[in-house]
Design a protein that fits this description.
It contains nine helices and no strands. The protein folds into two domains: 96 residues, Alpha Horseshoe (Serine Threonine Protein Phosphatase 5, Tetratricopeptide repeat); 64 residues, Methane Monooxygenase Hydroxylase, Chain G, domain 1, CATH 1.20.58. Helices cover 79% and strands 0% of the residues. The model has no long low-confidence stretch (mean pLDDT 83).
Length: 212
């Protein structure tokens, strides 16, 4: 390669750099900014998760000590302050359980409904819906409970919804609808340890003919 060629390449490089340095610098700045921003977001998420975990631990300790007022206050702190974390739904479920034990059924319904409406974990949302239906049953609001269990394609929860629908129909005196729901639940059931109790319910309604 000649000296002339070297100089031409240098000049070409200078020209390219003059035309592109701003785009390169901007891209580099954006890249570094993105990395820094992502790291800051991760640190923020870790901080929030740690705070939520501590708040939930306060709730757990209060609940274990049967300090209902303290537990309710701790649960509300988790729900209000850390609603985007899984701890919020778990806190609402835990406090609802205590409220049912205390006979505070309206408060329990409120917390269970919150999980159904705002929870991010589908499993916890189904669990809350089932529990809320049972609380409504205790309140003799069976029609409202039946609306909650009218759920399709709930995966592993299908059998639980069908069985509870059978319980509710039986409570209304509709033995045929109860038997049908129990038989459907038995088909959907995936846990062999749960089939015996369900089969007993079906046997108790053996006089009811299956729908054709």
């Amino acid at each position: 390669m000649s000296h002339y060629d070297d100089e031409a390449q240098v000049e070409e490089l200078k020209r390219w750099w003059k035309e592109n340095w701003l785009a390169l610098a901007t891209g580099l700045a954006l890249g570094l900014g993105g990395i820094f921003g992502w790291q800051q977001w991760q640190l923020h998420k870790d901080k929030v998760s740690g705070e939520a975990a501590q708040a939930y631990e306060d709730l757990r300790k209060a609940a274990d000590a049967n300090k209902i007022d303290d537990a309710e206050q701790a649960a509300q702190r988790v729900i209000d302050g850390y609603s985007s974390t899984p701890y919020a739904a778990q806190a609402a479920l835990r406090i609802a359980q205590l409220e049912v034990a205390q006979g505070k059924l309206d408060d329990a319904v409120k917390h269970l409904s919150w999980v159904t409406d705002h929870g991010s974990d589908e499993g916890l949302k189904h669990l809350a819906r089932l529990r809320e239906a049972r609380v409504l049953w205790q309140q003799k609001k069976i029609d409202d409970a039946l609306k909650l269990v009218d759920v399709k394609n709930a995966g592993a929860f299908d059998a639980l919804y069908s069985e509870l629908r059978g319980d509710l129909k039986l409570a209304q005196g509709d033995r045929a609808a109860a038997a049908e729901a129990y038989r459907k639940a038995l088909v959907e059931m995936t846990d062999p340890d749960s089939t015996s109790a369900l089969q007993q319910k079906i046997d108790d309604l053996a006089d009811v003919k299956a729908a054709s």
